[in-house]
Design goal:
It is a single chain. With about 425 residues, the protein is α/β, with parallel strands linked by helices. It has helices spanning about 15-25, 55-65, 85-95, 120, 130-140, 165-175, 180-190, 200-205, 240-245, 260-270, 285-295, 340-345, 355-365, 390-400, 410-415; strands at about 1-5, 30-35, 40-45, 150-160, 215, 250-255, 275-280, 300, 320-325, 330, 335, 340, 370-375. The protein has two domains: about 1-140, no CATH class; about 150-415, TIM Barrel (Alpha-Beta Barrel). Helices cover about 35% and strands about 10% of the residues. Helix 10 (about 260-270) links the parallel strand 6 and strand 7.
Length: about 425
């Protein structure tokens, strides 16, 4: 155990403590925070020559909520003598402070854009920079942490259950697939919509011995920003929700694009949950992290770029974000989203036969201390419009099964990453 002293009542006090607690969780080590610097192995005290590096300008800016830093390709902060402040560097990245900059660009839906990020500018989207800095910081201090094998977290957003007849039908017409058209008409007559396939998803999960989370919309029709919410009534789909529960998988809220509060939407659910993902990934860290913290939600799974896979906050694990206004952690866990099927289909327009390999290669390059979050919509478990995406999903699950990789549950993410404050 390492004794730590942090000078109290300074603008860096809580930030240093916060980052050290993130490192504790990341490395499965323990620090002992003491009140007397004379007994400390490491200290943060800008008045003491023996202090760890403190970039005072960074902390004073954050305290004043000024985050328009001039960032270069190193995405790091240095004191007046050119020495690196690892705490500041980690804090900036993990808490998405680039998104708090008033000049940060958003798209027409209010989402922070990948094209305006430092990940895009310096081609760092596939780099787990926070982990690299944690490892480097401990190496300099000659501390050996306890790295664990990376894991997967798998989820499904249920945006539509009844859209197959039109969308798959249009695909079939364009591709002159008469047999498909006949099958879709038959399914429609028999009231067996092709995308109402929760049972199929659960069966596949059972075959590969994984548990997944289903995020449900409680509002239907056009929502804010003219974004389409669900095409189903949550009240009429409780049989599917019970099916998920009986399979020992999990149900969460898919926060709709609406003016409803979290509590209003949770009331509409008809089931109890503390898990959330924003529909369309339409959220803003500056405003919506506060809403999450003020709600009964304990786990959010929205922090990813729609346009590209990888590390939106340069980190591979779930974490408890920090509120720079109240100078303490928010009251929920954020699990970054690393991969989404629509990213490959809609934005990157990837060759579908390469997607499974892309996910697996990414995991192997980050095979320690990561919880890789994979989102596969129910619509991509079908054979027509999204042909071959099911094959790629099974390729990933087969890799997980054969390599005995742990697939974690949402409650684990909460329990393992909650800070003692």
């Amino acid at each position: 155990m390492i004794d730590i002293y942090i000078k109290s009542d300074e603008n860096y006090t809580n930030i240093v403590r916060y980052v050290l607690k993130i490192i504790e969780i990341n490395q499965s080590i323990q620090f002992n925070f003491i009140d007397n610097k004379n007994g400390a192995k490491w200290m943060w005290d800008h008045t003491d020559i023996e202090s760890q590096v403190i970039c005072l300008n960074f902390y004073s800016s954050v305290q004043n909520q000024i985050v328009d830093f001039n960032i270069d390709q190193h995405i790091s902060f240095f004191n007046e003598y050119g020495r690196k402040d690892y705490i500041a560097s980690i804090f900036y990245k993990i808490n998405c402070l680039q998104e708090f900059d008033e000049k940060a660009a958003t798209d027409k839906y209010g989402r922070f854009t990948y094209s305006s990020s430092y990940q895009f500018k310096y081609q760092l989207i596939d780099k787990n920079l926070v982990q690299l800095e944690i490892d480097e910081f401990l190496s300099i201090k000659h501390v050996i942490g306890n790295k664990k094998k990376s894991r997967f977290y798998i989820s499904h957003d249920i945006d539509t259950l009844y859209g197959s007849f039109l969308q798959d039908g249009l695909w079939a017409v364009k591709n002159k697939k008469l047999g498909v058209i006949i099958r879709l008409i038959f399914n429609e007559v028999m009231q067996r919509p092709h995308w109402r396939n929760i049972d199929k998803i659960l069966k596949i999960s059972n075959e590969y011995d994984v548990y997944t989370t289903f995020f449900w919309l409680v509002n239907a029709g056009k929502g804010s920003f003219n974004i389409k919410n669900s095409d189903y009534s949550i009240k009429k789909e409780h049989a599917l929700i019970r099916l998920v529960q009986q399979a020992e998988s999990f149900n969460g809220l898919h926060k709709s694009c609406s003016d409803d509060t979290f509590e209003q939407e949770l009331e509409k659910c008809g089931f109890k949950t503390v898990f959330n993902r924003y529909h369309f990934l339409r959220f803003n860290t500056v405003e919506d992290w506060r809403k999450l913290s003020d709600s009964s939600i304990k786990l959010d799974c929205s922090l990813g770029f729609a346009e590209h896979y990888g590390f939106r906050n340069s980190y591979g694990k779930a974490f408890q974000p920090f509120d720079i206004v109240s100078n303490k952690p928010y009251d929920f866990i954020e699990a970054p989203l690393h991969f989404m099927d629509t990213t490959f289909h809609q934005y990157l327009k990837s060759n579908v036969n390469t997607i499974g390999t892309t996910v697996i290669d990414f995991f192997e390059k980050n095979n320690l201390n990561c919880d890789i979050s994979l989102l596969w919509h129910n619509t991509f478990f079908t054979d027509y419009k999204y042909n071959s995406y099911l094959k790629e999903y099974k390729k990933i699950l087969c890799y997980i099964y054969e390599n005995k990789i742990e697939v974690i549950r949402p409650l684990q993410l909460i329990e393992e990453n909650k800070l003692t404050w």
